[in-house]
Amino acid sequence: MRSVFISYRREDSDTEAGRLYDTLKRRLGGNRVFRDVYALRPGEDYARVIERTIATADVVLVLVGRS
């Protein structure tokens, strides 16, 4: 597996996304798991980076919270 993109909404699944990110990072390596708060840098075109990353990801995990 090359890469995993984690999609979530901060309002209701931030904690779960963090736990999932930490677990996957330990198992796969940090450079294989994308979570916006760690991967995006100030000044980057966020929409473009996210679009490109999703397009090249092997797996996209979408977390759906209560809301």
Reconstruct the topology from this structure.
Elements: E1 4-7, H1 10-28, E2 33-34, H2 36-39, H3 46-56, E3 59-62
Parallel strand pairs: 1-2, 1-3
Task: Offer a concise description of the structure.
With 67 residues, this protein is of the alpha/beta class.
Summarize the biggest pleated sheet.
Answer: 3 strands, parallel
Helix/strand structural class: alpha/beta
Task: Give the strand order, joined by hyphens, for the main sheet.
Answer: 2-1-3
Task: Sketch the topology as an H/E string, one letter per element.
Answer: EHEHHE
Counting DSSP H or I runs of 4 or more residues, the number of helices is 3
Q: How would you describe the shape?
A: globular
Number of strands: 3
Distance between the termini: 31 Å
Amount of beta strand: 5-15%
Rg on CA atoms, Å: 12 Å
Helical content class = 40-55%
Mean pLDDT: 90
Unreliable stretches covering 5 or more consecutive residues:
none
Domains (count): 1
Based on the model shown, name its key terms.
single chain; 67 residues; alpha/beta; three-stranded parallel beta sheet; 3 helices; 3 strands; 51% helix; globular
